[in-house]
Amino acid sequence: GGKGTNAVPVTTAARVNYQKYLESLAATANNPEQKQMASLILAKRYRDFDTDLLKHETTEQAQLEKTQHEALINTYRSEAVLNYRNPQRVAETLANQEAAIKTYLAQNGINGQTADQAIQKEKSNTLTQIVKRYIVNNQDQQAKAFYEANKDGFTGQYVDTVEKQLEDGTKKGEIFRAF
């Protein structure tokens, strides 16, 4: 079957072809009673077929929207990491990321605490990637300062990850600065 945006044109073609097939079957009936019975049976088959196609279209559309949403969030994360030395750009990007998440979740009937947790998880992930960028660029002191300034934005597993990255980065930085 069709995937994503191709789901509807493919299923539309399938409906047309299936309808033609059912009409060709109905044409083989020999008398009015057979024609009426064939018509009822084939109409039910078509409804069942159509229901399956609608389920397919809905599933494909939801998957496409999810994939597009994830790509958008990853784009915002990348943008924040690329602009890691510009606090204003990072803040703007985090706000855009949060707005995109809220919109997507609201469209899918998810609000309240569940939405807040999803937003916080993505923010924490983005902030973690920014700390990682500082450390990769041998800027452990700036990484630590960034972490301290944004500590409330880190949650759960990301706190442990960042603190380990900072510890390792600081050790490397101290060795580097000693020479």
Describe the structure.
The relative contact order is 0.07. The protein has about 180 residues and is mostly helical. It has 6 helices and no strands. Helix 2 runs antiparallel to helix 3 (about 85-105) and helix 3 packs antiparallel against helix 4. It has helices at about 5-25, 30-80, 85-105, 110-135, 140-150, 155-179.
Descriptive key words:
179 residues, 6 helices, 0% strand
Question: What is the secondary structure topology, with strand pairs?
Answer:
Elements lengths: L6 H20 L5 H51 L4 H21 L4 H25 L3 H10 L6 H23 L1
Helix pairs in contact: 1-2, 2-3, 2-4, 3-4, 4-5, 4-6, 5-6
In short:
It is built from six helices and no strands. The chain is mostly helical and 179 residues long.
User: Mind summarizing the main beta sheet?
Assistant: none
Give the structural class.
mainly alpha
What is the helix/strand order?
A: HHHHHH
Give the overall average pLDDT.
90
Q: What is the helical fraction, as a range of percent?
A: over 70%
Number of H/I helices: 6
Based on CA atoms alone, the radius of gyration comes out at 28 Å
> Which overall shape is indicated by the principal axes computed on the Cα atoms?
rod-shaped
Write down how many β-strands occur, each being a DSSP E stretch of 2 or more residues. 0
Note the gap between the termini: 63 Å
* Approximate strand percentage: under 5%
Unreliable residue stretches = none
